[in-house]
Amino acid sequence: MTSSPITGRRALLAAAGLGAAALAGRQATRPAPTPQEVRDASLRLLSTVLPDKRAFEMVLWDGTVLPGQTPPQARLVLNSDRALGRMMRLPVDLALGEAYLRGDFEIEGDIGAVAGLADDFEGSFSPASLATMARDVQLLRRHAGGAPAPVTATLEGPQHSRERDRQAITYHYDVSNDFYKLWLDQRMVYSCAYFPTGQETLDQAQEAKLDYICRKLRLQKGERLLDIGCGWGGLAIYAAQKYGVQVLGVTLSEAQLHEARARVAAAGLEGQVTLELRDYRDVLATGEGAFDKISSIGMAEHVGRKNMPTYFRAAYAALKPGGLMLNHAIGDGLGQARVPMWLQSGNFARKYVFPDGELLPVWETLKHASEALFEVRDVENLREHYALTVRHWAANLEQHREEALAALGPERFRLWRIYLGACGHYFQKGHLTLFQSLLAKPDAQRSAGLP
User: Fold this and answer.
1) Looking at the 3D structure of the chain, how many domains does it have?
2) Is residue 1 part of a domain?
3) Rg (the chain; Cα; Å)
4) Domain final residue pick, 116, 144, 172
5) End-to-end CA distance of the chain
6) Considering only CA atoms, which of 24, 159, 161, 10 is closest in space to residue 92?
7) 192 is catalytic
8) Domain for residue 268, yes or no?
9) 3-class SS string, 249-305
10) Is residue 337 part of a domain?
11) Same domain, residue pair 135 and 167
């Protein structure tokens, strides 16, 4: 009986897993690989697993080039002969991210071209080839030795408790207002923009997005709007200026609050816009049924699955009957369930980018909203708009590279660079989504003021 070939991602993962098993218990007894053995194992492994039609070329520490398409969209450069072994640890996405933060390898050009590697495995491998791959992985890991872990957030307390949520928000958003100004639009809107024609500048697209939100909520002069997760105040200021509403914005970021209040004052809107350092769980302190409309833009990702019922119940109670809520959030996208956890665990983003962040599929978010008695009136996926938004952000960051390095230091700068560069690819391919969900709290006559 013949063995069937193993294809694509499964082959790479099997080799990585077998390599890990083979390495266990043997590292202290095996002699150190020679430089030639390390080079040969690297070339064999890369020549086997890298897709021929990849969009980037790979450069070894000794200058050897493994070409990709012509011309390549990017170059992945291994900075030492230990880099590949560190990159092949499990889960692979976490190992790759940490190796980049440490400087084990560089990416020159389009990071998204490299981030798409996992989508491109199409080859099939015989059991004999798989065994060779496993031996090469084992040798490279043994040679790589230990490596210092990059600096990450240190959060204390139960996950998604009030205090721990505040720590997580501080880690991501209180980096530096001046740093965010380097690559966001002039309003400092840190969420998916809207490109009606695709030709808009980032400033134009963010203003279009703010107007899109206001129109979906059907804001009317004199109404009260609650903006949960108000950021640097972009939506609160726009809604007050253009639609004449009274706004209460809440955030857990002190740095954002300081900047947002300064912007409100500069716009002369202190009598119309109030911004507070407040948890979403405390919105009812203003009074039940106190708001005509609620916006939550890019905030639900921080709530966590276990707190989603609380999040929507609090919003529902804060709305007047007949009121509307717009929930704008990144969601888990297409194909994630087919990617094994040891390749695409999501640990890198949760550990280094958005501590404790959780992305839910849209069906689950709407389930929680419905269970809180919201009526779902409209759902729109804007993931292509987010792909374009992130490409603008990444380009701005590259343009201000030296200023960002001075503000953050090399490791934190590399984190933002790979995060923004990879996200554009994930949104474009549908691995991440961006849903705007319009939710209604009907009045006694089951009217939500909508056509």
Assistant:
1) 2
2) no
3) 24
4) 144
5) 66
6) 10
7) no
8) yes
9) EEECCHHHHHHHHHHHHHCCCCCCEEEEECCHHHHHHHCCCCEEEEEEECCHHHCCH
10) yes
11) no
Q: Catalytic residue among 192, 214, 230, 423, which?
A: 423
CA atoms within 13 A on the CB side of 309: 2
Same domain, 129 and 177: no
* Distance, CA of 292 to CA of 297 (rounded, Å): 17
- Residue-level pLDDT at 295: 98
CA 164 to chain CA centroid, nearest Å: 19
With CA atoms as reference, report the closest residue to 245 among 292, 206, 303, 211: 292
Query: What is the CATH classification number for the domain harbouring 31?
Result: 3.30.1050
- Whole-number pLDDT of residue 10: 53
136 and 167 fall within a common domain: no
pLDDT reported for residue 122: 52
**Contact (CB, 8 A) for 61 and 83:** yes
Regarding whether 179 and 118 lie in a shared domain, the answer is: no
Considering the domain architecture, whether residues 339 and 301 belong to the same structural domain is answered as yes
- Report which residue type is found at 271: G
Q: What is the CATH number of the domain that holds 392?
A: 3.40.50.150
Show which of 115, 144, 173 is a domain's final residue: 144
DSSP string, 178-224: HHHHHHS-TT---S----SSS---HHHHHHHHHHHHHHHTT--TT-E
Q: Are residues 44 and 101 in the same domain?
A: yes
Q: Which residues pair with 78 in a beta bridge?
A: 105
Please name the residue that has the structure tokens 């119309």.
272
Residues 384 and 416 in one domain: yes
> Exposed, middle or buried by CB within 10 Å (0-12, 13-18, 19+), for 218?
middle
Nearest to 209 by CA among 328, 291, 299, 319: 328
Per-residue pLDDT of the chain (451 residues; tens, 9 = 90+): 444 455 545 555 555 555 554 444 444 467 899 999 999 999 999 998 888 889 999 999 999 999 998 899 999 999 999 999 999 988 888 899 999 999 999 999 999 999 887 676 555 677 888 899 999 999 999 999 988 889 888 899 999 999 999 999 999 998 999 999 999 999 999 999 999 999 999 999 999 999 999 999 999 999 999 999 999 999 999 999 999 999 999 999 999 999 999 999 999 999 999 999 999 999 877 888 899 999 999 999 999 999 999 999 999 999 999 999 999 999 988 654 444 444 556 688 889 999 999 999 999 999 999 999 999 999 999 999 999 999 999 999 999 999 999 999 999 999 999 999 999 999 999 999 999 999 999 998 887 778 7
Torsion of CA 144, 336, 385, 330, to 10 degrees: -90
Question: Could you list the residue range(s) of the whole structural domain that residue 334 is in?
Answer: 162-441
If asked whether residues 130 and 264 sit together in one domain, one would say no
Q: CA torsion sign, 211 to 213 to 216 to 221? A: negative
CA distance 301 to 278: 17
